[in-house]
Amino acid sequence: MDTRSDLELTGEPVGGASDTAHVFAADAEEGLAWTTWSGHLQERLGADVVILALGPRDTGPYKLAARAPNDSEPGEGLVAAVDLTIAQRKPIVKSGYQERGATCCAIGVPILRDGALYGVVAVQLPVKADLDLRSVVEDVKWALPAIELGLMARDLREGALTQARARAAVELLADTLDEPRWSVAASTAITDFCDRLGCDRVALGRRRFRRSKVVSLSHSGSFSASSELVQRIADCMDEAIDQGSLIRMPQDGDDSLTLTAAHQELIWSGAPRAIMTVPLRRSGQVTGAIVLERGGNSPFRDEEVELVTAVTGILGPVLEEKRLNDRALPIKIAAAIGRGVVAVLGPRKAGLKAAILLAVAAGVLAWNTTATFHITADARVEGEIRRVVASPLDGYVASAAAIPGDVVASGDILATLDDRDLRLEIARWNTVRAQRQREYETALAERDRAAIGISATQISQTEAEIALLEERLDRTQMRAPFDGVVLSGDLGQSVGAPVSRGQVLYEIAPLDSYRLILSVDERDLALATEGLSGEVVLTALPGQTFGMETGRVTSVAGVEDGRNVFRVDAQLTEKTELLRPGMEGIAKITIDERPIPAIWTHDIRNWARMTFWRWIP
Description:
617 residues, Beta-Lactamase, five-stranded antiparallel β-sheet, coiled coil, 30% strand
């Protein structure tokens, strides 16, 4: 942050109170405030010099804005005090230095608002025996409110001017943007300029082939482009565009090096006039210029120049964009082709030319290079067979040992049903059999042949019932029919729940027999035939590739993610223990060898054919 005072670099100081008021206030009353308190400090403190340094908020450099007496020159000691005050942002006392043969002291007090430094008030006074430096600092601080009020008034005025300029720019641009055609928008813009700035005439010109041509005049529906006046206005535009700067007549000190011959001729051709010419640009290229004219007694002020510069900075691209959009379609196409030809064949953009040559070479090489053409399809692993384990009888779930994803061996218990009722029934029939056995033994002891036959039959019947119950008891333990993986069935959350005979409880698939189900997009169905080879990568095993061979292609379509797909069965050409039913991935079916561009544009060409077929009459 540059906070230098630069008091020695300011050149001629501002001067008296009226000049000071112009620097940090617009009011004569505030200038009078400077005169009042600077005079007070001189009279009360016996100050030799009182100075006021002001600068941009917090950034500097801070320059000499006012001094009292008007013909005084700040010495090195006073300047050093100002520099030290700016650096430390607190009151500074520098004493004991010699100034014009006298011992002096300098006191600097910073002007702070909301923690930001705006400047410094400093006084130089001779050293006396009764000098109370604390009292001097307080007297200087007493003057700060008047200066702060002046700074606040200046900020308010600058803010109001900025808002006014922004509002005028927005209104003018809004009126211009409302017009769809370039000619109407241009006429609206310059007429609005003319009315807002109190101009007699405003002209808009377009730059073409290093010459300007007037295309619109304010408050004028038609004019002769070949008239002497219009030609002189065009010359003013060329003069400003060729120098790349704004030209204002009459000139001020900053414009003394600008060539203004064409503007002088326009002034001499009629009554004395004030003229301002502003070039218009779009993307850094000059597209035209605006010439504003009014009576010579009303020269263009600095704030008007700032307004015009701000508005034309946006107006130029807007008008040029509207002009380009208003061109006929053949002209737009021709212009685009011309820009492309210039870019390729012109002396510039060597990088673009090299890129085009490389692209052509790459295209030729690609057409002579073939690669394997694949069609891509979503793939899903399924067991080649699926075995269902169903409930053998009505009952209740007693326990569950398997959940989906478990690998089970043949004969492993998956779940059991509650067998208490069956065991009680078996115990009852065992009691009946014992009773029948005793009856049989009694009949045998009595040699009662009829009773012996009846008892033997009853015993056989009882044993058959017991065998049936034991078989049912064994079936309450549901076992895996083969080595495999459980696909579905989670009875761990259903212990105690009733099940009915035939109800599906588990599904099991073998571990060594899988197939792939491919979902082929309908656009590639004609290419997918039986017996094609390919590869598949599964999401769960992204680092491994498995070979496959396509099988049957079904003729029934399905919908997946908004696309019509057909199912194609495929067999894996290699076995692995890592596969599990339900895994998904991406399969690529090998079709043939084709040129690389043909592979890249396969989908685009198919889309273009369908679109063309849809829209041809």
